[in-house]
Amino acid sequence: MNSNNIASYLIDHPQFFEEHAELLSTIKLTSPVMGRTISLQERQMEVVREKYRLLELKLSDLLRVAEENHDITKKFQRWTRSLLLARNDVDLPHVLTQGLEDIFDLPHATLRLWNVAPDFSHTWFAQAASDDARLFAKGLSTPFCGQNQDFEAAGWIDASAPVQSLAMLPLRLAPTSATFGLLVLGSPDPARYTKDMATDFLVKIADTSSAALSCLIDQ
Fold it and tell me: From 187's CA, which of 32, 36, 81, 195 has a CA 20 to 30 Å away?
């Protein structure tokens, strides 16, 4: 009989130690925590304490994530409310980008729209974007995050320090709809936007921005 057979037997006969209770006090184990030989009961308590400690750590982590998500939700609500309060359509791009900078504490936010209605053709957000920039935006199924590799969109940002990293969000009303613009978030910190960062929240930003700005496009 090997150790596996013994373990299987004890699993199949949980009443064994009830019938032989005297064995519990004689079984000795080496404690990885205390570094000495302890009884089976003491070892069981160590295992329970370790499980409890791990559960506390998991709960603490869940609470931290919940607090962060709650804070993001409050900021998103404030930003969305500012878009709803904009009185003039032409003000929306400024309200949107300024709100991102102020509410989410972002270094830089700007955008470009194409195919805008004639009434808005003279505006800053309707300034020319090259065919390459439009093609790049069209090819984005999700936001791009990463280092600034001399992207044209980085030049749309008026910044005193070089833009080292970017998040670029395509603007469209549905995944299959035509792209009508690009929302650009920039930072002098090269680690602010990275290619391996989660983009779920940026997708929500892009979706809300697209809905708000669609009134400026020549349908």
Answer: 81
How far CA 6 is from CA of 3, 13, 16, 19, 28, in Å, comes to: 5, 10, 11, 16, 17
Token output for 147? 């280092």
Place of tokens 């609500």: 77
Question: In the block, which residue shows the tokens 């009884």?
Answer: 39
Instruction: Return the pLDDT at 66.
Output: 82
Q: Rounded CA gap, 182 and 143, in Å?
A: 10
Encoding tokens for residue 179? 């792209």
**How many angstroms separate the CA atoms of 205 and 219, rounded?**
22
Tokens standing for 19? 């019938």
> HSE (CB half, 13 Å, CA atoms) of 125?
27
Structure-token pair, residue 25: 């006090």
